[in-house]
Specification:
heterodimer; A: about 325 residues; alpha/beta; D-Maltodextrin-Binding Protein, domain 2; 2 domains; 11-stranded mixed β-sheet; about 20% strand; globular; disordered N terminus; B: about 725 residues; mainly alpha; MetI-like fold; 3 domains; two-stranded antiparallel sheet; 6 strands; disordered C terminus
Chain lengths: ~325, ~725
């Protein structure tokens, strides 16, 4: 990482035959700050040269699929668990049972079991929303506490959520509501909610960024994204819905056919350690780490305050279930917009 | 005769170098690292072709035999008979290498030949040695043709044609075919028509609901937007061109600078600035709301916002196209009209304006295509639904993961752009707009009608101020602590991106992608210019069968949206025989063949102005065509070369949609990095990085501009204008 492209080329040209340090090609699907911090700390402790590129989890999955027969990537860290499960389904990723599995929370291990150990949970975050305190105060609206409150006509045009066709966050929301209410009720609810939605954004975290900058009143997102905006100083208040909510399991997978399998395993084990996961608060990432010994940021939404549903990742990660829900969403909700 | 043998010697030298000296196969760590020199003897994977044959890879034996046969032929007398043998030999070599490359993959047979021929060991992709052998065979093929007397026996021209046809097939046609094939495949590669059937008639694409109060399909929305953008940018471009040439507007020089700015602005930046100024909480919106008492809310999101951003971005390009045309209208025509007692308004409407028609049509076409292909602005300002380019992107990377939908949308987009192109051709065909002739054409342009003049200056000044204001905001955004919240000035973003320390070198987070970007852009620019101008020379000056197909396939790579190019490159070049994913090469090739059409068009335009009697004179005096190209044509094309260099350099830095799939952990590009920052809401550092890139590009372009300027000094005014005209066409195309 420290080597620049030109300098590395020069150095390699001038000094042929010198054995290079081990290499690791990493796709990182989290915030660039935490990506860079992780790589920096890992390189300090290991004799492995990490090449990191940051791609959103959708882009990463598309890339892995396109490269399936001759992968160029060794390890994929972070990004919501759904595409990791899909990749595992497609056998694009490599089964690996880390010795550190025993140190992890149950939800992280379940994620691994669901995927036959082709992936593992590294952090989790619950779905909720952030609202702009100034806008709601100016309009005299009572801050919504529950999913049901969001359909209140006073919030017309004040809500943003991503389009589940493009965003994993919004798909998690869709699946959550279906599990919480039942499918037909969930779509009836979404149609009602649609009356208040001003825009279905493309990116999952865009709604709360819009709310932070006063472009909308409420953004339905993963709560850690809302916390990040509040932490920047924007007037954002974070809400966990009273009826209960779903969550994502940010995951990590080794790519099947990786050229640097040993280096990938080294990083994999390290990334599951409490030491590595404790870096997240430092990079202002507010997800909950998967290692039981790791400490979440004190600003992270406390789990006790959140009513989590028993989200069925296996069922709602299935390709046909996803396709059916997305088609129905496009016909009933997206088309009506 | 000697020269014929010398060409063959060079081809043979290349071939045997490939067989004997350099590694035959692809090296994972990269050829240009030159690590392989040290390990070559010990590691069989690094052996050259001969070693590979000895190692049991008998599929390479024909290569050795064919080259040996060519060596033997070299001793016989040149002539049509030898020519035919060389031709067959070259074709056989090329055909065999392509066939064995596709037939034997990494893990054995890729084609179902195992029952027939038994199991075989896999082989890596083509490496340096194989590439040299391919070059050698194509050279033998071309020189064989020459000896048989094709194209007046000109070996150089034939060699160039063969080489370019190979390159264009490998890097334009092959990935595009791969994309079309993708429409009929599920992702495991099985044939299916489900994807096409489900998507081709999808109401989300074709619905005309907006006519009856609902929402329209994405195809119509995109078409409507493109038409609006093209109209807006053409009109504004015309206003600027008129203001610059026919009014007494102050600061005309400054206009030139404004025209360069949007071309070198990284994507997303204008869209971001617009949301800050005119979004719901932007101060322009708030000002308007307090003035009118109406709640405007989020009016900027959706088509209006994209339209403003696109008109901002593309007006300068249309200005560059139009200014040459507006200047080119012959003053004597206008004077004639006024002598015949037409007033200024009538003269403008009935004489000047119709004579500008080709320019207007060109500007419109460019606005249309640019709007169709634009990705950054719709992504930020898209509102609901988006446009074709963003839909393609999300069909690939979104939760749907539906490549066949992406292929269908890409084909629709391609149909729109190609129809626009054909419509323009058809409309302009058979009319004569030529007013620039060799005859003396003195006189001054007619002044604009008073009212029109005032209007033109007014609009030009207002729009310039608006552009400056937006760019001021962008510059400011890099220094604001948290844009949109805390506007304390700070250098923090620049420090994080570009910090340098004595101890650790370049510690800023941006340096890594910055150096990669510079290295790749600087490598791609001269290649693009060279390939583009060589192609232009062939198209203008040579006749060969299949020329129109060749020209058309070049056009395609430009009209296809970047997202599709990106994905198809990954699919096409991830496996043997050609493997480039994860390397810097794939980025360089992508830029070269994506931007080459611009070099071609610029070169064609410039070369059409150089009388072919010059080449003929040189040929008559005994120079061969290579020497003519080098000593006569190239010096006359200097401005076109420089413009092609600038364009490809800038595009390599600012393009995003194709790049996002081609970047790898090792070679990350600036725009891909900036998009990551924007996605994570790190606007400050994203804008700081973008501003720095803008500065770097201004510096580089300034250097090129100085060279072009010097060139102009030695020409007469008339020529100066032509040069300028070409430039405009190049930048805009």
């Amino acid at each position: 990482m420290k080597h620049t492209y030109l300098l590395a080329g020069l150095a390699a040209g001038l000094a042929p035959g010198i054995a290079a340090a081990d290499e690791l090609n990493l796709i990182c699907s989290a915030d660039i700050v935490i990506c860079e911090l992780l790589v920096e700390r890992f390189e300090e402790g290991h004799d492995i040269d990490v090449n990191m590129v940051r791609l959103s989890s959708g882009e990463a999955y598309a890339k892995l699929r396109a490269e399936a027969r001759n992968p160029q990537t060794d390890l994929w860290w972070a990004g919501s668990g759904d595409p990791h499960l899909q990749a595992a389904n497609d056998k694009l990723t490599h089964p690996y049972e880390s010795a550190r599995l025993s140190e992890l929370h149950d939800w992280a291990v379940t994620q691994a079991e669901n995927a036959e150990y082709r992936t593992v949970g590294v952090y989790s975050g619950a779905l909720g929303w952030g609202y702009n305190t100034e806008i709601l105060a100016a309009k005299g609206i009572e801050p919504p506490k529950c999913w049901a409150d969001l359909t209140d006509p006073s919030l017309k045009g004040e809500i943003q959520i991503a389009d589940p066709n493009s965003s994993g966050t919004a798909y998690t929301a869709l699946a959550t509501l279906v599990q919480l209410m039942g499918e037909d009720e969930a779509f009836a609810y979404l149609a009602e909610l649609g009356a208040n939605v001003s825009q279905y954004t493309k990116s999952g975290s865009a709604p709360v960024k819009a709310a932070a900058r006063g472009e909308t009143g409420i953004g339905i997102v993963f709560m850690h994204d809302a916390v990040a905006q509040a932490d920047e100083g924007f007037p954002i208040e974070v809400v966990a819905p009273c009826e209960g909510t779903g969550y994502e399991v940010g995951s990590m997978s080794i790519i099947d056919g990786a050229y640097n399998l040993e280096a990938a395993k080294t990083f994999y084990d390290w990334a599951l350690s409490a030491e590595a996961q404790n870096l997240m608060p430092e990079a202002r990432s507010f997800q909950l780490p998967s290692n039981r010994a790791a400490v979440a940021s004190e600003k992270a939404p406390a789990l006790e305050d959140i009513k989590l549903i028993d989200y069925d990742f296996a069922e709602y990660g299935k390709t046909d279930v996803r396709q059916r829900l997305l088609d129905r969403w496009s016909k009933e909700i997206g088309a009506a917009f | 005769m000697n020269s014929a043998n010398r060409s063959i010697d060079i081809a043979l030298l290349l071939g045997f170098a490939g067989l004997l000296l350099v590694p035959w196969y692809h090296i994972r760590s990269g050829f240009f690292g030159f690590d392989w020199i040290g390990d070559m003897l010990s590691d069989p994977r690094l052996w050259p072709g001969l070693g590979q044959i000895a190692d049991g890879r008998l599929q390479l034996l024909p290569v050795l035999l064919l080259l040996g046969f060519a060596l033997w032929l070299r001793r016989s007398a040149p002539g049509p008979a030898r020519g035919r043998l060389l031709l067959v030999l070259g074709a056989a070599g090329l055909g065999w290498m392509i066939a064995e490359g596709f037939a034997i993959g990494l893990r054995g047979w890729s084609l179902p030949l195992e029952p027939l021929l038994g199991a075989i060991e896999g082989q890596p992709a083509f490496g340096a040695g194989a590439v040299l052998a391919l070059l050698s065979f194509s050279g033998l093929f071309a020189f064989g043709l020459a000896e048989r007397g094709a194209l007046r026996g000109d070996g150089f021209v034939l060699g160039a044609i063969v080489l370019l046809v190979l390159l264009v097939s490998a890097f334009v046609a092959y990935p595009i075919l791969a994309m079309f094939a993708g429409a009929f495949q599920d992702f495991r590669g099985n044939f299916t028509t489900d994807g096409i059937a489900a998507n081709i008639l999808d109401p989300a694409i074709w619905s005309l609901g907006c006519l009856s109060g609902g929402g329209c399909g994405v195809a119509w929305r995109t078409l409507f937007l493109a038409l609006c953008t093209a109209t807006g940018s053409t009109l504004l471009g015309l206003v600027f061109a008129l203001a610059a040439t026919r009014t007494a507007m102050p600061f005309k020089k400054g206009l030139r600078l404004l025209t360069v700015l949007p071309i070198i602005t990284p994507p997303f930046v204008i869209g971001l600035a617009l949301t800050m100024v005119m979004g719901r909480a932007g101060f322009v919106t708030e000002l308007l709301e307090s003035l009118t008492g109406q709640e405007l809310g989020r009016w900027i999101y959706g088509l209006p916002g994209i339209w403003i951003a696109q008109v901002l971005s593309f007006t300068p390009i249309s200005f560059l196209v139009l200014i040459g045309v507006v200047e080119g209208v012959s003053p004597s025509m206008e004077e004639a009209s006024q002598t015949l007692r037409a007033n200024r308004w009538r003269t403008f409407r009935r004489v000047s304006l119709p004579l500008m028609a080709p320019g207007l049509a060109n500007a419109f076409l460019i606005g249309f295509i640019e709007s169709m292909a634009d990705f950054g602005n719709p992504l930020i300002l898209g509102g609901n639904g988006g446009v074709l380019s963003t839909e393609i992107f999300f069909a690939v990377v979104g939760a749907q993961h539906d490549p066949s939908r992406a292929a269908v949308l890409a084909i629709i987009l391609l149909c729109f752009t190609l129809s626009a192109f054909l419509a323009q051709r058809f409309w302009l065909a058979g009319r004569n707009f030529a007013t620039v002739s060799g005859k003396g054409d003195g006189g001054r342009h007619a002044e604009l009608p008073l009212v029109l003049g005032g209007l033109v200056v007014g609009i030009a000044v207002l729009w310039s101020l608006f552009t400056l204001f937006i760019y001021g905001m962008i510059l400011f955004g890099g220094f604001a602590k948290v844009w949109g919240l805390d506007h304390t000035l700070t250098l923090e973003h620049y420090a994080r991106a570009f910090s340098v320390s004595l101890e650790h070198g370049f510690t800023g987070v941006a340096w890594n992608s910055f150096w990669t970007t510079m290295g790749i852009a600087l490598a791609a620019a001269p290649l693009t210019a060279a390939v583009g101008l060589l192609t232009a020379w062939l198209i203008v000056r040579q006749r060969f069968p299949g020329k129109s197909v060749f020209e058309f396939s070049l056009m395609m790579s430009f009209a296809i949206p970047g997202t599709v190019i990106g994905i198809s490159y990954v699919m096409a070049y991830n496996l043997p025989p050609l493997q480039m994913t994860g390397s810097a090469l794939i980025l360089i090739f992508c830029f070269v063949f994506r931007n080459m059409p611009v070099g071609v068009r610029g070169g064609v335009a410039a070369m059409s102005q150089i009388d072919s009697s010059l080449d003929e004179a040189s040929l008559t005096l005994g120079a061969n065509s290579a020497r003519t190209l080098r000593r006569v044509i190239l010096p006359l094309l200097k401005p076109a070369i420089l413009a092609a260099l600038v364009y490809s350099f800038v595009r390599a830095i600012t393009s995003i949609s194709a790049v996002i799939f081609l970047v790898s952990a090792k070679y990350n590009m600036a725009t891909a990095y900036i998009v990551g920052l924007v996605e994570n809401g790190e606007y400050g550092i994203a804008i700081a990085y973008s501003s720095a890139l803008i500065l770097v590009m201004i510096t580089v372009i300034g250097g090129f501009q100085l060279l072009i300027g010097e060139r102009r000094l030695r020409r007469r005014a008339e020529d100066g204008r032509k040069v300028h005209n070409i430039e405009a066409r190049e930048i805009s195309a």
